[in-house]
Amino acid sequence: MDRRQALRLLATGAAFQLAPHSLFAALREARALIGTQAAPRTLGSHQRATVTTMAELVLPKTETPGATEVGVSDFIDVILTEWYNDEERSRFLNGLADVDARSQALFGKNFVDCSPDQQADILAVLGEKMREDADRVRDQSRQHRGSASKLQEPEQNFYSMLRGLTLTAYYTSEAGATAELDFQIIPERYDGCAAVTAGEGAEKQ
């Protein structure tokens, strides 16, 4: 599975428990790059802080690690830099700018400087727009089924992109793969994307 195929699959919101092994193999490259970066290559310091704050609200720490602990902002920077094309990258960065524009209009300050309640209000608005966009795409699909006309893709919604990347970062981390997806750690190490073949502990069905 190449990067474009992986991004399309992630945009559908497919459950990771049901995702093909090739998706995890494709994402292994992004995970491996996180530790090699001295600094973010696409996100500026303020953009990174905004991503970190939003991701933590989407995936807060509970009995399992939250978005910040699993390096969501670093993962997103890798995807923006290595996987996204110019149009997708601009869409994401413009979406971040729009979050601050909304925050300034409502509360007179940037998103990261707002109170948790104010930040939650903004995310609620973004979530409603995400649902409206998804409904519109479904309606267009029904109306133009079989047509060659280009339809809006779900990932064009910024908040949908952010949520998808946040969950992807979590479920490809050691915490997500072991605590949530219940991957086996054999032999006593995490390698959530490694291929397992017959004779290496895999059970034949």
Describe what this molecule looks like in 3D.
There is one protein chain. With 205 residues, the protein is mostly helical. The chain has one domain. It contains eight helices and no strands. The chain has helices at 3-11, 21-34, 45-58, 72-83, 86-107, 116-143, 158-171, 174-180. α2 packs across α4 (72-83), α4 (72-83) packs across α7 (158-171) and α5 crosses α7. The longest helix has 28 residues, at 116-143. It is globular. It starts with a helix and ends in a 25-residue tail after the last helix.
Order of helices and strands: HHHHHHHH
Global shape: globular
Radius of gyration: 18 Å
Low-pLDDT residue intervals, each spanning 5 or more residues: 148-155, 183-194, 200-205
SS elements, strand count: 0
> How much of the polypeptide forms β-strand, as a percent range?
under 5%
Query: Helix/strand/pairing class, anyone?
Result: mainly alpha
Q: What percent of the residues sit in helical stretches (DSSP H or I)?
A: 55-70%
How many domain modules? 1
Rounded mean pLDDT score: 75
Distance between the termini: 24 Å
Main sheet properties: none
Question: Helix segment count?
Answer: 8
Q: Descriptors for this entry?
A:
205 residues, mainly alpha, globular
Task: Present the secondary structure layout.
Blueprint: H1 3-11, H2 21-34, H3 45-58, H4 72-83, H5 86-107, H6 116-143, H7 158-171, H8 174-180
Helix pairs in contact: 2-4, 3-4, 4-7, 5-7
Short note summarizing the structure:
This protein has helices spanning 3-11, 21-34, 45-58, 72-83, 86-107, 116-143, 158-171, 174-180. By secondary structure, the chain is mostly helical. It has one domain (3-143, 150-180).
